[in-house]
Amino acid sequence: MGDERDDSVSFSETAIEAPGAEEVAVLPWPSLFRHRMVRRVESSDRYPWWVLWTVLAGLFSVGFTITILAVSLPRIATDLHSDTTTLTWVITGPLLAFGVVGPLLGKAGDIWGQKRMFMFALTLTLVFAGLTAIAWNASSLILFRILGAGEGAATGPASMALIMMVFPAEDRVKAMGFWSLIGAGAPVLGVVAGGPIVEHFSWRLIYVAQIPFTAVALIAAAIILPGRDKVQAHRIREPLDVLGVIFVGLGTASLLFALNRGPEWGWTSPGVVVAFLLSPVMLVAFIANERRTRAPLIPLEYFKRRNFTFPIGVQFFSNFAYMGSFILTPLFLDEAFHYGETKIGLLSIARPLSFSLTAPVAGYLAVRWGERRAAIIGCAFVVASMVAWSQVDPGASNWAVMGALALAGVGLGVSSPSMAASVANAVEEENLGIAGAAQQLLTQVGIVAGIQLAETVQAAREHAVGVVQSYHEAYLLAGAACVLGLVCAFFVKSAERGEREPRVAPLIREAA
To answer: CA-CA 20 to 30 A from 272: which of 17, 24, 71, 225?
Structure first.
């Protein structure tokens, strides 16, 4: 009666009463099977890698649909009797929601457990995938995509925190190579697969296919992920900083709303001006709230730490360029080259392929290179990609197009693992969730700002300089932003791995 059981291996007992017999306690076979599977997996020397593959499966099932509709907005607009400008929010809305809600869910994971938040996100992903598949107009599609991305935002910080818990500090950059591959590569792979599916079948089929992917990831998470976050088990429950979430959400949303509506309504229109003014006001309110609250959403003192602030800066500006050009490229190839969705998708595979080949290898090489050198090399490659795109015109060969794409994939693949690991190693173990969420928030804001500003420059300049030159100028804007990321890279401090005592992963240390 008084025995205590580990939450990760506990199972319920079912009492069956036979006629004329005492009650007999029996073990239900599904619980017994799960119990044995968990014990076998957790006893393996490869358990950290089992956790890594499991969270990556969940991250992919959520992430590959975020931008999958990018190459097919005109076709979907026709299907739903809308226009491409409105449907841009099918892409930017989820990206914004993914980042804005992230801090709240990251903090919730730190308090209530990362596995719980991860599985909660996957469960709701199933629901909204089904709803998106039956969307009846532009408004319902945008709403379901935003809500789906909002709850899916928990997978980012939760997956990162779970990886950091089971890997020792000196191996985190290796694991983050694979995490970066899926986190940034899944949306791009979605575009590659989405083009042919939409062209030959229907965009709705994408979300029908998401359901079994997510269901498999959910089952794997239930079996393999740590049943109890032992770092969180000893923490005092803290209140969630909901007011902080409101301030940061309103601030970022108003800025990006103004950038999106400015070209349509005019930059001096009342709605755009109010939105621009609201953004800094909300930022000041957020900082004031974080200073006085007992349990801040993001501890402001983290931004005084060199390897917290500058790696996030690198991620902000490199993703500004990477994803800004990611949205531009399909439109450029369609409008100037007159390519169809299938050919655009096949050419675009050069970027996720180069990323997939680079990120895991870079995670291992960064142990020798150091985080600073990885960040500098990565940003330099992304800048080179933007410059290359500024020279590409409709007479260019397919190899030139794929080469320009591959440069960006290599660049982000080199820098992302090191920057994510640097941020995680700069904070306390119990705040890994919020550290991941802070990265996610600012990276997503960079992504959406890059998309909106690149599209704004291209649209504003098209009538003045022509279609091709307007795209070239938008790529140069993205490259200039990544130069700022390159500046941040020089301030990143590489870990002195040869001189420090290896740090053991929290869950491994707890078991010892």
So the answer is: 71
Fold type of domain 44-241+293-511: Growth Hormone; Chain: A; (1.20.1250)
Among residues 411, 442, 450, the alpha carbon closest in space to that of 326 is found at 450
Q: Which tens digit of pLDDT belongs to each residue from 343-365?
A: 777 787 788 778 877 877 777 77
Q: pLDDT tens for residues 63-91?
A: 777 666 666 777 788 888 887 777 777 77
| In the chain, where the domains are located | 44-241+293-511
The pairing of beta strand 23-26 with beta strand 14-17: antiparallel
Asked if 179 contacts 160 with a C-beta cutoff of 8 angstroms, the reply is yes
Residue with tokens 């899944």: 186
Sequence-distant (6+) residues with CB within 8 A of 480 are none
Residues 6+ apart with CB under 8 A from 63: 152, 155, 182, 183, 186, 187, 190
| CA distances from residue 352 to 53, 91, 428 in whole angstroms, order as listed | 19, 18, 33
Q: What is the pTM of this model?
A: 0.68
Which H/E stretch holds residue 15? strand 14-17
pLDDT at 379: 92
Distance from the Cα of residue 333 to its chain's centroid: 26
- Cβ-based neighbours of 109, under 8 Å, separated by 6 or more: 116, 117, 118, 154, 157, 158, 161, 433
Rounded Cα gap, residues 21 and 4, in angstroms? 29
The one-letter amino acid at 87: L
